[in-house]
Model the fold of this input.
Amino acid sequence: MSSLYIHIPFCASRCDYCTFYSEVYHKHASLVEPYHKRLLDELSFLVNEKKLFFDTAYIGGGNPGLLGAERLHTLLKLVHTHGRPREVTMEINPETLTEEFFPLFEEGLITRLSIGIQSMSDGFLRRIGRNTSSGVNEHALRLAERIHDTCDVEISVDLIVAIPGQTIVDLQNDLNRIFNLCTADHVSLYCLTVEEGSRLFEKGGIFMNEDEQASLLYELWAYLKGLGFEHYEISNFARKGKYSQHNLVYWTLGTYIGLGSSAASTIEEEGALVHYAQEQDLQSYAHGKPFSGYVMERLNTVERIEEEIVVGLRTRWGIDKGSFSRRTGHDFSALFDGIIATLDSAWYTDSGQFFILTENGYMVLDAILLRFFESIAEALDRP
Done:
């Protein structure tokens, strides 16, 4: 049993902040059909030859809606070949969500919808180069509410935080408008980052510093808690236990297979953790042979321990020391008690079984990871 990720790299336009791999749909429309066919070929092999059952599935992008409801239907029917996964999520941009997609929900092929709202302010949407408007977002949220009510589909929304000029009042207003329109029990918050290769980086400008971002996040986290949301992962919040089951597979280093251009996979082979990365671009993938372009990397002991630390410190459950020892062959306390003693006690809670970061710790996660990595290198004599 494994989980499945399918990447759809088409976007109507490229947002100014984005550095994920995607291509503009209208420039590459001729590749949609061959791209879809190769996905079908690879997925058919997994379910018909390997007889794989998928515990969770996630169709992400890009904007998967641009593949069209009919093509998505053929992929999703294959996903369900050996039974219904616990959760099937599809991402979609608000401007793409229409009644055309309703049969996918009515047939139970998709059980969770993730909508990239990002902001409910036209001004902030323009500032980050988002190809939508507050009116389009509102329409999409109303459609999502119909899907939720009639098909019992869970709804998640994404918001971007720390856009220049944004205040806690702006974000509270965004959330209130969203919740008045739609029963969203999951929220993902992503700080605006200006990375090399994005249009925002090329444009330059003044952005929030770390202290300003931290102040805004603390207030926003507290506001969501007041609305009944649990801060279960550094960027993710859920009500009523409506966690992203698929993403929990990532955050616990579970097994998953990724299909499509730029997709990644993680599997266990002979006790070792192995990553596969699909390195073909859209055109190469669309015209390539099934399963070509997937490059394997077998993690060594140090890399395996680093992965355990990176994902474990992101969640409210932290690192289970017993599980860590079984999976890596190393004792957590022996490796890290010395470095933990140097950390601010407000950053974590530490028990005999679990090491968990607090929200204060989330704010300095990168610095904590650096110290842990240094401790790993020293203990295992890595140069």
Summary: Residues 268 and 357 are 27 Å apart (CA to CA). The mean pLDDT is 94. Residues 301-383 form a domain with the Arc Repressor Mutant, subunit A fold (CATH 1.10.10). The first helix runs from residue 32 to 49.
